[in-house]
Design goal:
By secondary structure, this protein is of the alpha/beta class. It has three domains: 157 residues, Rossmann fold (3-Layer(aba) Sandwich); 160 residues, Rossmann fold; 152 residues, Aminopeptidase, CATH 3.40.630.30. 36% of the residues lie in helices and 23% in strands. The strands form three sheets. Strands 14, 15, 16, 17, 18, 19, 20 and 21 form an eight-stranded mixed β-sheet that branches. This is N-acetyltransferase domain-containing protein.
């Protein structure tokens, strides 16, 4: 990998007690982003097997010390990072307070979620579960939501499998996996259930790196014909094995998505409370069936059921998530290459030059040039006004743009511009998303944001659409039509 690749820090934990789900999906994301980013993994108390699994994707590992509080851990993590570093958080301990602490120091945040519990201070929230809607989230203004199987956290062999030409399914071979750790040993109990239902079928039993019952499993299956044990397989080996089996038994977790990507008769057995929503989605969307229904399934009905599930699986899992993630992270990286600060008196001349730029004036409500004395008085008033927020952006010491938000009666009107020499680089989206995120830190409570752009100014309109603003009825001002956009922002304390 080229040393020019920017770094991306993943923070997640995993072991035999809590399972490996958070680690596995972070590694899947790291592998998808490897062409563009160098992954660094921060983890507390990793075992040797887990460490080997991580280093196969992210060679650099930061071992997180034990701290008395999460605030202390967040401060330690910040001490390891340069400003503007992108950080991916995956774990239920990374609460709104933890996220806000990192965001206050200017780190770009991505959060992998599956609980929809708290306010999201992250710039990007990823929830691969189906059936989730943006209305279910409270987040910083301008935050991006990557929801559903279009953003499935599939490792590269499973993305490739989703794009392969279909082949026949061998329903005489069963795949069984109950997660990377399975501390309650659902693996052994489910194995006995499957042997009783299908005594003559071949059974491939896969356990993960943190599975603590391997000796017990080996003793219980010793001498059983047709039962084959596999432990701690790599992604390519696992994908190949799934491809050989037409019937897949697993929890409704990331493993279920990998089974669906390969394709087959997927039977789900929930083993944790946080899997219920994904279980409901997969079964109601026709992608899988509950394992509990197995006893009622006639053997001669299985081929047609498998065929119907596979058709639906192919329609949903297209193998293109990596391209989507790379676009999201490249845009976020662009935004965090900029430094953000509040404007000061010394910036008056810079704002004056930007305000009188010909392209800016042509898109303004009033197109006439602005006199210096008028601008100077206006700029002083804005700096002194507690309801005005003026943000200036620089890249490598060069001013590249500004965002201004002026509030009146709970509504903030947005003005933003990019310097002439930096246009056409996607910086309009970058400066506005950064400014809106910072505004949430700087202004408490609930409020709304309004943007107005000339009807012909399609690039600015696309920026507002991209950041989640809702279009309102266009208005006519000074004989010109303007598109109007609104974003309602809820309090982070609610």
């Amino acid at each position: 990998m080229s040393p020019a690749h920017p770094r991306l820090v993943f923070r997640a934990d995993g072991n035999a007690t809590i399972g490996l789900g958070h680690v596995t999906r972070c590694l899947a994301l790291a592998a998808m982003l490897a062409p563009d980013f160098e992954g660094i993994f921060a983890i507390h108390d990793p075992g040797p097997a887990v460490l080997r699994q991580i280093r196969a994707i992210c060679p650099t590992v930061l071992v997180v010390p034990a701290f008395a509080t999460l605030a202390q851990e967040a401060d330690w993590l910040l001490s390891q990072l340069p400003p503007g570093q992108l950080v991916v958080l995956d774990g239920y301990q990374f609460t709104a307070d933890y996220q806000r602490r990192l965001g206050n120091r200017g780190q770009g945040l991505v959060y992998l979620d599956d609980l929809l519990r708290h306010y999201q201070w992250a710039d990007v929230v990823i929830n691969q579960a189906g059936g989730i809607t943006p209305a279910e989230y409270r987040q910083i203004p301008g935050g991006e939501l990557c929801l559903g199987p279009a953003y499935a956290l599939l490792r590269p062999p499973f993305q490739a499998a989703a794009q392969r030409v279909e082949t026949g399914l061998d329903l005489e071979r069963i795949f069984l996996n109950m997660g990377g750790a399975d501390p309650q040993n659902h693996t052994l109990r489910t194995l006995h259930q499957l042997r009783q239902r299908f005594p003559h079928k071949s059974l491939a039993v896969v356990t993960g790196a943190a599975y603590p019952h391997q000796p017990e499993l080996a003793r219980a299956t010793s001498g059983l014909p047709g039962v084959y044990l596999y432990h701690n397989l790599g992604a390519a080996e696992l994908a190949d094995l799934l491809g050989l089996c037409g019937l897949h038994v697993c929890p409704p977790s990331g493993m279920a998505y990998e089974c669906c990507a390969v394709g087959g008769l997927v039977l789900l057995h929930p083993i944790a409370d946080n899997q219920q929503r994904l279980f409901t989605y997969l079964t109601e969307a026709g992608l899988a069936r509950p394992l509990a229904e197995l006893e009622a399934m006639a053997d001669d009905a299985l081929p047609e059921l498998a065929h119907q599930l596979r058709l639906r699986q192919r329609a949903v899992f297209d193998g293109a998530a990596a391209q989507r993630f790379r676009r999201v992270f490249q845009q976020l990286h662009t935004a965090y290459q900029l430094t953000l600060r509040r404007a000061v008196v010394a910036d008056a001349r810079q704002y004056f030059e930007w305000a009188n730029d010909s392209a800016v004036r042509s898109n303004a409500l009033q197109a006439e040039p602005i006199a210096w004395t008028t601008h100077e008085a206006w700029f002083s008033r804005r700096l002194a006004d507690a309801d005005s927020f003026l943000y200036i952006f620089e890249r490598a010491g060069q001013p590249v743009g500004q965002v201004r938000v002026e509030f009146a009666e709970g509504e903030g009107t947005i003005d933003y511009s990019v310097a002439a020499g930096f246009r056409g680089q996607g910086l309009g989206l970058a400066v506005l998303r950064r400014a809106l995120g910072q505004l949430r830190h700087d202004k408490t409570g609930s409020w709304a944001l309004l943007g107005q752009v000339k009807a012909a100014n399609l690039p600015s309109a696309r920026v507002f659409h991209r950041l989640g603003f809702a279009p309102l009825t266009p208005v006519r001002v000074h004989g010109e039509m303007y598109d109007v956009f609104r974003l309602d922002v809820t309090s982070a304390a609610e």
